[in-house]
Each structure stands twice: as C-alpha cells, then as structure tokens.
Specification:
Elements: H1 2-15, H2 45-56, H3 70-82, H4 84-110, H5 115-139, H6 144-173, H7 180-183, H8 186-192, H9 196-238, H10 241-254
C-alpha cells in the first residue's frame, strides 16, 4: 500500500508541472548558441579545410614536392639557351612563309585577267607551302628543316631570275614604232618615237635592280638557313633525350 501511494504521489507531482517545463530535461543548463554576429561570412576554402581538419584531428599534408630535381631544371635552362638561334630561324621562316602567301594571293587574284600572273601566283603558293613545311620541321627539331628552308630560297632565286629575265626581254623586244598597231596612228607614232628608248631603258633597269636585290636577299636567307644545321646538330648532341622529347611534344601541341 505504501508503494502504491508513493507511485500515485509521484504521478500527481508530474501532472502538476506546467506545460513546457523542462527542469528535469537532460538539456537543461545548456545555453542556446546563437552565431556570433561578427563572424566573417566569406572564409576562404583553404582556411575552412584546415580548420575542419584540425578539429577532427586529421593530419594536414604538406605541399607536394617538385618532380624535377635542381639538376634537371638546369638542363632545361641550358637547352632553352641553346635553342635561341633555332627559334630565331623559325620566326624568319614564319615571316617568309606569310609573305609568300600574301604575294601569291594577289598574283592569283590578278591571274583572272593575266595568265602570267596566274603562273606566278601558283609558284609563290608552292614557295609558301615549303616554307611552312620547313618551319614545322625546325619546330620538331628535324634535321631536314634547315635544308628544306635553304633549298626553298634557292628555288625562289631561280624563279625570280626567270621572271625578271622574261620581263626585261619583253621590254627590249616590245612593240615599237615599227609595230603595225602603232603605225596606224601617225600621232601616236610621233609621240612614242622620242620616248621609246627611254621607256625600254627604265623598264629594263627597274627589273635589273629587282633581280639583283632579290638575289642578294634570298641568297643571304638561304645561307642563313643552311647555317642553322650546325646549331641544330649541336643542340641534339648536347641536350638530354628527355628534354628533346619534351620540346617536341610542346612543338606538336603548339602547331
């Protein structure tokens, strides 16, 4: 009977508590946490990661070491220094290739009216193609590159000689006062008679200057290309194989 009374008394005491009373709750005494108003809202990702790793007790891994040694970095630096002369030749070849392309485009455009311009445009287009091909060979450190570029300049000299020689021949043997078309007009014949020799002289002299300057420039360029072979051979002989392969991969991705 006493136990029953104790039980009923305990139930009555529980029933007398107001609703929402959490005096006996296991959470009583723990304050309700409100985020601090001055907390930085934009913490960096790296800082959060380190903070969380530190709270969990996880070790923070250090930065990964470089896969290359100091000696290998030195080999790359020396290879870059040796490649400077080869890189200059690549730039020269790139300039020449685009120059040939531009002149070929204009010649082909005028070739719609003149068969001679059409032939000249086709020849210049071939020179541009070979110049681009030689440049790619140099980028790939191919020993054929200097020879391809040098031979292309020699072909350019031959074509320039043929073109200027043909134009000078036309000027020398062109229509004069004895030409039937001019003889039909007495006024035109009389006007051109004192100027005929001067026109021929100026025309022949102009093409002669173009020929001499062109042969000098193209010949010097051919010599320059041929001389790069020695630098390319030295580079391939003195540079470690893994550096050469790295250069070739980079050149292939840039092409």
């Amino acid at each position: 009977m006493a136990n029953d009374l104790d039980f009923l008394g305990a139930q009555a005491a529980e029933g007398s508590k107001p609703v929402g009373d959490t005096t006996d709750s296991p959470c009583v005494g723990e304050p309700f946490r409100i985020p601090h108003a001055t907390q930085a809202p934009h913490a960096t990702h790296a800082g959060q990661h380190r903070q969380h790793a530190g709270e969990r007790g996880d070790p923070i891994s250090p930065a990964a070491p470089s896969p290359l040694t100091a000696e290998q970095f030195g080999q790359i630096a020396r290879a870059q220094e040796q490649r400077k002369k080869i890189n200059r030749a690549q730039k020269v070849a790139n300039f020449n290739a685009w120059s040939f392309s531009v002149f070929a485009g204009f010649s082909l455009l005028f070739g719609l009216l003149s068969p001679g311009s059409l032939i000249a445009g086709a020849a210049l287009a071939g020179l541009a193609y070979n110049e681009f091909r030689g440049r790619r060979q140099l980028m790939q450190l191919d020993r054929r590159g200097p020879r391809t570029l040098g031979n292309n300049q020699i072909v350019c000299c031959v074509l320039l000689t043929l073109y200027c020689g043909y134009q000078m021949y036309r000027a020398y043997t062109g229509p004069g006062i004895d030409d039937p078309a001019i003889q039909q007009s007495a006024e035109l014949s009389a006007m051109l008679e004192p100027m005929q020799d001067l026109i021929k002289t100026v025309t022949i002299g102009a093409y002669a200057v173009i020929l001499v300057v062109g042969l000098a420039v193209q010949g010097a360029t051919a010599w320059y290309y041929f001389s790069r072979k020695r630098w390319l051979d030295d580079y391939l002989r003195q540079t470690p194989g893994w550096v050469i392969e790295l250069d070739r991969v980079q050149a292939a991705s840039a092409a």
